[in-house]
């Protein structure tokens, strides 16, 4: 777990190119609600989004079309 909880709105800075952020602006307003933090991503993934307090807010393996996000995309 993380030493800090993240709860509330945050801004994800999109980095690189990913299908999950295709045609979206470089900064996305999102909802965070978690006490855990991703500190390392798998070797076959790349970081595609981050916030000021969440270095891996979004990751992608475009070849396999696998994606992971730390925020709540349904909000």
UniProtKB/TrEMBL annotation:
<keyword id="KW-0332">GMP biosynthesis</keyword>
<keyword id="KW-0658">Purine biosynthesis</keyword>
<dbReference type="Pfam" id="PF00117">
    <property type="entry name" value="GATase"/>
</dbReference>
<dbReference type="GO" id="GO:0005829">
    <property type="term" value="C:cytosol"/>
</dbReference>
<dbReference type="InterPro" id="IPR017926">
    <property type="entry name" value="GATASE"/>
</dbReference>
<keyword id="KW-0067">ATP-binding</keyword>
<keyword id="KW-0436">Ligase</keyword>
<protein>
    <submittedName>
        <fullName>GMP synthase (Glutamine-hydrolyzing)</fullName>
    </submittedName>
</protein>
<dbReference type="GO" id="GO:0003921">
    <property type="term" value="F:GMP synthase activity"/>
</dbReference>
<keyword id="KW-0547">Nucleotide-binding</keyword>
<dbReference type="InterPro" id="IPR029062">
    <property type="entry name" value="Class_I_gatase-like"/>
</dbReference>
<dbReference type="GO" id="GO:0005524">
    <property type="term" value="F:ATP binding"/>
</dbReference>
<feature type="domain" description="Glutamine amidotransferase">
    <location>
        <begin position="7"/>
        <end position="75"/>
    </location>
</feature>
């Amino acid at each position: 777990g993380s030493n800090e909880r993240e709860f509330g709105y945050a801004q994800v800075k999109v980095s690189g190119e990913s299908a999950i952020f295709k045609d979206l602006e470089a900064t996305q307003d999102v909802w965070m609600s978690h006490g855990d933090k991703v500190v390392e991503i798998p070797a076959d993934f790349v970081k595609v989004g981050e916030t000021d307090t969440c270095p891996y807010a979004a990751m992608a393996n475009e070849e396999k079309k696998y994606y992971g996000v730390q925020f709540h995309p349904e909000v």
